[in-house]
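Sample intake sheet
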Amino acid sequence: MNFKSSIIYGSLALLGFTTFTSCEKDLKPDVYDQFTPSTFFKDGNDVKAALTSVYNGLMTGGYAGWGSGNGSWHVQNSMTTDELVCSWGWDGWKKMNDLNFAENFGEITGHYTTLIRKVSECTIFMDKANSVTMDATLKARYIAEAKALRAHFSAILYSYYGPVPIVVDPKVAQDPLAPSVARPTDDWMTSQIEKDYKDAAAALPTAYSSSDYGRFTQGAALTGLMKLYMQKKRWSDAVTIGQQLLTLGDGQHVYELQANYADIFKITNKTCKEIIFAISCRNDADQTNMWLAHVLQGDYYDPAGQALTAWGGYKMPWKTYDKFDPTDNRLTVLLRNYPVGRDASGALKYKDAKAAGLPGALPVKYGPDPAASGESQGVDMVVWRYADVLLLLAEALNEQGGPSNQAIDLVNRVRVRAGLTGYAYGSLSQSQLRSKIQDERLFELWTEGSRRDDLIRWGLFVERARESGSPFADTNKIFYPIPRQAIDESGGLIKQNQGY
């Protein structure tokens, strides 16, 4: 089966349709389950089940998507920056940190195939759901969620590879013989992402009941849109959306900062009003949080006495860690000194990771799930939260008109929560506030998936790798390479990114 057909059929199979085993010249379907186009999408339950399948693309087995493994967006957005290094021997970690990318580096090229498929799956879902007789309000909401998901998957593709030929026409998405097309213009793809986010935000509710927690809301769609505007440096548009998020819900302030930073990342975070979008996790299912297993050292001792899986992998380099103010309370979950046991009196004993020769601090961040017995934890993975929006709005305001009092206030809200002193009005120039915001985004959002896009927006992504001694870092490495198979299957219509 060729590359293009596998994407289309993969999308259909995930929606409970048919799959094919033949080559494109002899297309005959083999039905592997009871679902076919004539038996599925008959009622609202089918539509909800299909949408759940689309959502499952946000995390795979705890490792990919917003998961914790080497093939996840979450980890790569840190591992290609100054936020993370890894103690394990696989050479791919060093390649990520050095921006040493190539067409045969499957961990970075694989996102292309996966995300193109998910975009097509969203397109097919919207078409099929639209024809189902069901509650009209619920149908409109489900279609809006799919639009938000399509925008989200497309935005990740765009960030990694630049403009690529996503399929938004349902007839094309379902036609395995549809001809290949060239890569679209940058304007076309960003406009498509913008349209999907806007359409979704207009139709989505501001909040859900607990049974629907983890789905796209109006606020999540607006946050994705704001991030797109920031990426394109459309400061005025970003300000408009940021201001809207401040008072979302008829001025009822849907979102607010959690009083204690560490509580955002605990098992109780389903009730946290700071979280805008999260991946709902379980300790007994495929969609699970495996962060602690990746970051804890083997001799780590949980103060509550819980047995935790510890693989001793990810670390924040000391050069980055040392930028933090020692009094910053965000360091309570970013550990230079970590517990290794108790002494005879019952007091905790600590190991100094730096003195012990480890390459960096332990980026613990997520608290343990008391009900977990292994590496799989049920603490929800945070995708976007309110502090991120506050700092983005401060940045956009500063870029648009300089260091206004509101921009200073927004930064100070985050700093004061961290136990630090705020900045005085009029004390910073535009360039000085820009630098302070850049630092604050590191201190606040480390290992949450923002760092790569931040450094690219600031023109510091390649510079960081060069300063770290990489001989591979050049401006071409802002984008990953397109998989060679996709280029070959298109007959050369799809052009490789420059430098590969």
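Comment: Confidence is low (pLDDT under 50) at residues 16-35. Residues 136-161 form the longest helix (26 residues).
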